[in-house]
Here is the input.
Amino acid sequence: MARPFWSGHIQISLVSFGVKLFPAIETASQIRFHQIDRKTGERVRHQKVSGSDEEPVDNYDIVKGYEYSKGEYIQIEPSEIAGLRIASRSTIEIQQFVGRDELAPAFFEKPYFVLPENDAQADAFAVVQKALQQTEKLGIGKIAVGDREHLIAISAPSGTKLVGLMGYFLRYAVELRDAGKYFSDRKTGKVDEDQLALAKELIKRKTQTFDPRKFTDDYEVALHELVDAKLKHIPLPKQQASPRGKVIDLMEALRRSVKEPLEKKKPAARAGTSRAKEKPGPRLIQSNTKAVDRRRKSA
Here is the structure.
């Protein structure tokens, strides 16, 4: 198991128990790009320099600075920031509870697994987990990590017997733009009842239980195809042009959509993907090749 991202306590009134937070997400992308000098083919590297003399500066000599006047800074040492008196560095104090559906999706940022710190914390942890499950509530508190204090929502996943909670970093209200500035000036369209009925039927037909495993990063697959083609010196895959049929009205589009089979046929072969005689090249990156092969077979 990886090292915990944060260790401390969750406190609910007089109840407190130790927990560890682990990131619940990881970077899935397998393609990494570097900046390359087009002329020499060499990698471009960056240096941290100081002032007009552009002398390199060691990381040890770099501190934070607050610009209180134009070109004038107060230096802040890392040890001074670490010494700030912030209770949420070590304790997530739950300040209130809210219903699961009360928080708009726009507030959610990053998910974390929340586990008991050790076996001694198991009983208190289990009681709080069960209570959150049965009441369908989220606990809202604050946690200080790095250079800022975050809002965090503590949740108990429903329908699971696993020992664990979820923690979601939340955005502050001031970080969200006012939707009214974007939506208020839009023209209100007319809703035809027949069109509405067809739209609802279309939604009903396409409603399924969400399975995240069905969704893959097609952009990542396409990047692998591009790298593969350039290494083997074969024609580059080309984007298939979007079909442009005759313009039809909304009612006709809805009718056709409702009648469309749920399982679509495989797309036609894309232009530029025919296999030319391959030239020998370096051994390819093996990660994600299954997804690439599936794309080729369906093309």
